Amino acid sequence: MSDLTVSNSRCQCSGCEEFFNSLASFDKHRIGRHGKDRRCLTRHEMLEAGMEKNTAGYWVTARSEGGFWSGKEPQADDLDELI
Ligand SMILES: [Zn+2]
Questions:
Q1: What's the angle, vertex CA 37, arms to CA 32 and CA 39, rounded to 5?
Q2: Is the full-model pTM beyond 0.90?
Q3: What spacing in Å lies between the alpha carbon of 42 and ligand 1's midpoint?
Q4: Can you list the alpha helix ranges (DSSP code H) found in 1-83?
Q5: Backbone angles phi, psi at 73, to 5 degrees
Q6: How many Å lie between the centroid of ligand 1 and the Cα of residue 10?
Q7: What spacing in Å lies between the alpha carbon of 16 and ligand 1's midpoint?
Q8: How far does the centroid of ligand 1 lie from the alpha carbon of residue 40, in Å?
Q9: In this structure, what DSSP letter does residue 41 have?
Q10: Residue 43 C-alpha to ligand 1 middle, in angstroms?
Q11: Nearest to 47 by CA among 30, 61, 58, 57
């Protein structure tokens, strides 16, 4: 998958240029204090924080987000992110 796009829930970080599946996952990779030491987590740090890249190539907050991996049906709350 090379054609990653940005939609109203997915976003690309202008700092590290990684793609995120949701604002929650985007927020999770930004640490530190605004105007002080705000920065992005490295890929390694994101993995250590439990974040994963989904099958479409977007970072998610956790393996269960979106339900791609476990084989379970997506929850209603996840549907917006799958469209
Ligand atoms: Zn970033």
A1: 65
A2: no
A3: 8
A4: 23-28, 43-48, 76-82
A5: -70, 140
A6: 13
A7: 4
A8: 4
A9: P
A10: 9
A11: 61
Q: Side chain identity at 60, as an amino acid letter?
A: V
Q: Is 12 exposed, middle or buried (0-12, 13-18, 19+ CB in 10 A)?
A: middle
CA of 29 from ligand 1 middle (Å) equals 6
pLDDT in tens, 19-72: 999 999 999 999 999 999 999 999 999 999 999 999 999 999 987 655 454 444
Q: Strand, coil or helix: what is 67?
A: helix
Distance 50 CA to ligand 1 centre (A): 16
Distance of CA 12 from the midpoint of ligand 1 (Å): 8
Collapsed DSSP state (helix, strand, coil) of residue 82: helix
